[in-house]
Design brief:
heterodimer, A: alpha/beta, Purple Acid Phosphatase, chain A, domain 2, seven-stranded mixed β-sheet, 21% helix, globular, B: 119 residues, alpha/beta, Immunoglobulin-like, four-stranded mixed β-sheet, 8 strands
Chain lengths: 322, 119
């Protein structure tokens, strides 16, 4: 990254309350600590530097949780030979949040090669989090070799099929989906008919005013199909959620922040805690991006989500590790 | 860039000549002892199989090598062969003892596809 571009993002702290047309600008500097708030279908952004001025009740919301993703425990190559240290740093970052999240979501690629000791290490590090509940969905790395049997034995108690499930917290309905098993040659992420049927039945009894949070590993929107960054049957899944006034979709897999707003649906992808990946099409492949050691923690991070009832508001704050 | 193209062209010519010589040798020397078919190699690089399609004689051992920093798998779409996860520099080999067209992909990154054509 050139120095001028870096400066432009780092010091661009004056764009408060941009409208939907301007949300690309929000995306560009979200990685440096911006806050994006959904209010009545309009995405507004605020600079982290003015955080102290915000009304705590308004921003803190009624429900707060944090998302971590792509810890890739076991990865040991450039640019990150110590992914345990950066996961620990992510947990420290979460523990230091002023409003403690009630629970954590891990959106997959917990491990790099689905080895038992990789999962053990992650479990041990996550025990250091103040928030004790962690909800998982698997990434494709977590289901290597056994179609996810080990993953489900560890994290999938009470889940259906390949490990999908839903739960409610303070009136918000959370849905964890699995789109990394039974992938078809030439295809993208895949939910499959059984899971789609389950999803349709799961949301059917809910009132349209129920806020919905969907989380899954591979993006449920077409980020960059050429690199497999999308899910073949996500449109059908989203069609079941059309009646709801507030739907937030949280994904990982692409190791960078991306946001999109489509009607009442906000899509958001999180940074990895392990290594960055290139922007779509900006490299020969989506392989790990090598960055200088001193820059590594600026491209890794966590996502803090606050829900404010009655305002259709979901505040998503991405914070870098360093 | 031009130099690279020229090298690729030269390499292709050498391979073509070698193939011709091999074929002629077999036809000409009926009594000569035939060597076991040489192995074929597929490299996994930048989330793709190279070459994406390989044509080999029956009995050939094909060996895949993962040169990416990310694990990949080699999985036949018809359940004929299936590797474990290949980490960086890991290899997987399979002997193709029957003619046919074998399509395969990486089960982790299914956009990655390839074919082994056995004649």
């Amino acid at each position: 990254m050139s120095q001028s571009k870096k400066d432009e993002i780092l010091h661009d702290h004056n764009h408060d309350g941009i409208d939907r047309r301007g949300f690309l600008k929000c995306m560009a500097w979200a990685g440096t600590g911006a806050l994006c708030v959904m209010q009545g279908g309009v995405l507004k952004s605020y600079s982290m530097s003015r955080m102290n001025e915000w009304n705590a009740a308004k921003m803190g919301g009624e429900l707060s949780f944090a998302q971590i993703s792509d810890s890739h425990m076991g990865f040991n190559k450039p640019a990150n030979p110590d992914v345990a240290a950066t996961l620990k740093a992510a947990v420290d970052k979460i523990n230091a949040l002023s409003a403690q999240p009630e629970f954590l979501l891990h959106t997959g690629d917990i491990s790099h090669l689905a080895k038992p000791d990789e999962f053990d290490t992650v479990d041990q590090i996550l025990k250091g989090a103040v928030a004790k509940d962690v909800f998982f969905v698997p990434g494709e790395h977590d289901v290597i070799g056994d179609d996810g049997q080990q993953y489900r034995d560890r994290y999938g108690k009470g889940t259906k099929g390949a490990g999908w499930y839903s739960f409610d917290k303070k009136g918000v309905h959370f849905i964890g989906l699995v789109n990394v098993v039974n992938l078809k040659a030439g295809g993208l992420g895949n939910l499959g008919g059984d899971q789609l049927d389950w999803l349709a039945a799961d949301v059917k009894p809910l009132k349209s005013s129920t806020p919905i949070v969907v989380f899954a590993h591979i993006p449920l929107w077409s980020v960059y199909p050429e690199w497999g960054w999308g899910t073949d049957d996500s449109a059908q899944a989203l069609s079941y959620l059309r009646k709801f006034g507030s739907v937030s979709v949280l994904n990982g897999h692409i190791h960078q922040i991306m946001q999109k707003v489509e009607g009442n649906v906000t899509f958001h992808t999180a940074m990895s805690t392990a290594f960055p990946q290139p922007q779509p099409g900006k490299a020969d492949s989506p392989g790990p991006m090598k960055v200088p050691a001193e820059q590594l923690r600026s491209v890794l991070g966590i996502t803090d989500v606050n829900f404010v009832r009655g305002q259709h508001a979901l505040a998503i704050v991405d914070s870098q590790l360093g | 860039m031009r130099g690279k193209v020229a090298r690729i062209g030269l390499a292709a010519l050498v391979i073509a000549l070698a193939a011709m010589l091999t074929t002629r040798g077999r036809v000409g020397d009926v009594g000569a002892q035939e060597k076991a078919p040489a192995g074929a190699v597929v490299k996994i690089d930048n989330f793709s199989f190279a070459p994406a399609a390989v044509t080999v004689p029956v009995g050939t051992t094909v060996t895949w090598t993962n040169r990416d920093d990310i694990p990949h798998t080699v999985v036949s779409t018809d359940d004929v062969f299936k590797s474990k996860a290949l980490d960086t520099d890991d290899k997987f080999s399979f002997v193709f003892s029957r003619p046919g067209t074998y399509s395969y992909f990486c089960s982790l990154h299914p956009k990655m596809t390839g074919q082994i054509i056995v004649q």
